[in-house]
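Q: What does the assembled structure look like for these inputs?
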Amino acid sequence: MNHSEKKLNSLHNSLMRDPALFEPAEFSAMESEKTGASNYSYWRSTLRTFFKSKAVIALCVLVSVILLMSFLYPVFSPIDPTKVSINPLDWNHRPSFKHPFGTDALGRDIFARAWYGCRNSFILAFCIALSDVGIGMIMGALWGYNKKLDPIMIEVYNIMTNVPSTVYLVLLAYIMNTSFITLFISMASRGWIVEARFFRNRILSIRDAEYNIASQCLGTPMRRIATRNIIPHIISLIIMEAALCIPYSIGSEVFLGFVGVGMPVDAITLGNMVNHGRASFTLHPYQMLLPAAVLCIITVAFYYLGNKFADASDPRNHV
Amino acid sequence: MKKNKKTVLPIEKAELTPEEIERIEREREIIDQSAPYHKGEKLLSARNVKVNFNLRGAELTAIRGASLDVYEGETLAIVGESGSGKSVFTKTFLGMLDKNGRITDGELWFHGEDMAQYTSEEQWLKVRGKKIAMVFQDPMTSLNPVRTIGEQIAEVIMWHFGKSHDEAKKETIELLHKVGIQDPEKRYKQYPGEFSGGMRQRVVIATAIACRPEILICDEPTTALDVTVQAQVLDLIKSLQKELKMSVVFITHDLGVVANVADWVAVMYAGKIVEYGTVHDIFKSPEHPYTKALLQSLPQLGTKGNDLYSIHGTPPSLFKTIKGDAFAPRNADAMKIDFEEEPPVFPVSETHWARTWLLSPQAKDYREALIKRDAERKENQIPEEPFDYTNAEKLITVRDLSVKFKIAGSTFRAVDGVSFDIYKGETLSLVGESGSGKTTIGRAIMRIYTNNVDGEVKFNGSKITGKLSRADKKKLHMQMQMIFQDPMASLNERAKVDYIISEGLYNYHLFENEEDRIAKVESILSEVGLTAEFISRFPHEFSGGQRQRIGIARSLIMNPDFLVADEPISALDVSIRAQVINLLNKMKRERSLTYLFIAHDLSAVRFISDRIAVIHKGHLVELAPAEELFAHPLHPYTKALLSAVPQPNPDTERDKVLVKYDPDMHDYSTDKPAWTEITPGHFIYANAKEMEGYMNEISR
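A:
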């Protein structure tokens, strides 16, 4: 017996096992199918990725608090934000415990006005987000699916986006009387086209996916292709676009209020408050800065959350 | 190249028991036995490498202790299916793991240093690209689309050797010439977009060899390429290896490619090397059940009319805990011990080892019985009689079919005047390279394209091109269905299997009530080999092969007569292909279906088809019964395709001579070509002069 055979023998000896184990095992074909399953779920992974960052959690809490305050404060607070004081001692108070944001030149409580303003601005922003994303999505779907519509829509898009938005907004607000409806119309009439183009690009990229061709082969009607094949794939985009629409709308409202063509002067909105505060800025800077700070927090938080959600909804980031 | 910014944690080696240490020692000894049989010195030595990934909060082990050596001047092929860890394993040689992965155990010896201990990017930069270079599957991921390819290669040379721009440019042009790019001076100034896929891969290879690496790792470099181009790129890699005396590590799932290029083969399954040996060891006497199954399930080796040997189930996902032999759940001949204890390495010969209990002397009888049974089964297979065309009815007639696409203002004919028939009950295969128009023909027949289609398609004698009434459309949807190429893209990710399969039923309300619908879905699921409990799951929970079967179930539930199968197996793992081919054949027998089978290479086609049509640039160039086409190919393009098919036989594959096809060889300027029947059933696209030549070739 030479050296290598000896080695092999010792190997085999060390690997001796119970002979009963060398019997054929039972085989189950269905069991063999189960080895491949993964625990991946799109929405679970999206939320997990989204909430992984501490900043996102903090901002989510902050935004919820602001939303709750905006809608609950006007209901529960006894302070009337429009109450004017004729006593000059009540005018232009610095921020104090009684008036956290101070009072303005007519003795109105800025803290209360800020929440009323937030509420009105939010209502406007939600309406605009709803109409922009809603109309944008429907038009985008038509645009993406109908090849004949494409050249027309591209021209419409070019014309509408090439008119500077400030000129357009100011002009429209100028022609019509200043009111909530005017503001809504002037902003909503133009916001949808950008959304429509965004959705058109997304729909174009999934329109020719094999699963949509499969539906075509099966004779699936257009309506069901839209509700089952298209919308579920872009729902995260819809959420993201709506979230990004809100700070933009609030910002536009403030801008229009600031240049004096926003809501009527007696309406409480963040834009009007910033505009009022501007007049006394040199003497009482807090009257403008504090509402502006609330505004900044809201816009920055929504932008940040919207962008983070966009990242989280991309399956490539699901690691 | 991707930057690796991981922070390397100190490796915590688990305390090993003396038995485990002994086992590892023994394995090393067996692995080292092959050393004297290699051509050169050992270059790189990976020992017991383990790689963990942190994926969605779970800690997964992708490589479970893999050991491998790379020797000077040799080609080592690593074979395995997707998810086996072959790419991840080789990426550890360059420190290129994704940032959520890390080496947790093992050694990687290269030039006297253990690379597994490297902590900084600087250490890796001395190795990566300079000594070990990598070529990826998709050339576009490694090329910058907005810079000329010449500058991209020259930059590598300047960066690594500190040469001046002019010197680097000169060297780049030489390199481009070396990798077979014609007119390199002109090509130097072009952008990657101006190159074809094969050319791009050549450029990537040129970049990789610019620093004269000692080891070139090719990660499925030809998977994305057409067969004829694949064969050329393989030839290039082989000749470069000889010229530059590199070691090549070739990662692939295609055993034909392995037979072509490899000296040594390592088979990988579930993060472990399960068998290692010379290319002859692996192809002639495979020992591990997985290797055996892979080889037996190749359609090139099947007998027509009989089921292919197929591997059950699906490749394991990393989320499953593995006990014993990872392959055991899919192995119908597994032993009880395979489920209990992980098999150790057993030597077969000094150059060949495998990780299976079958090699234990205790399993000797069982092993011999298995070998005998496999041999008998092979002998008992009787080839099916060829399809009888004498009384065959025409199911589909296609006449002068043309499909045009508008691209950037100009019209492009993807399909140009194609005519053929499909007979009831046959399988007609349509073979051609990407961009040849084969999928377009399938889709034109399926009426996906309608406005841009000229010519006529008849189904059962009635015209189906042009405008159709709603009732006619419904009838067609019930009679013709399609199976798609990419199982990942062809199922709606956001719908449950239940809805996906019932979609056709919903469209035409083909069920009486909800119970009837569920019963129909469940019965079709069991027909394609899946359990009823799968119906409430989403597609992402399934592997590629299972998804493809769901796609087949979706089209079969309509009870069609005719199926267009658009490359149904090309995106699947090798171990899964046989399953799907068998399923398609079974369905054809049981439901008397007719197939139009679209494929890009000839290897699987011979096994499944009755007739084969070859298409090139929108023209059918040859159509003949399958055996006739393989025996007497006439058109030079068919010959080129046939010669490019990789055969899983190292003896013939390594020295084969490629037939190249150059479309400029035809002179159609005065003598126009036509689609003619040269012998009964054998059609060819040729002009009068060529016909004469082909006639001579046939009579010879």
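The longest strand of chain B covers residues 42-55.
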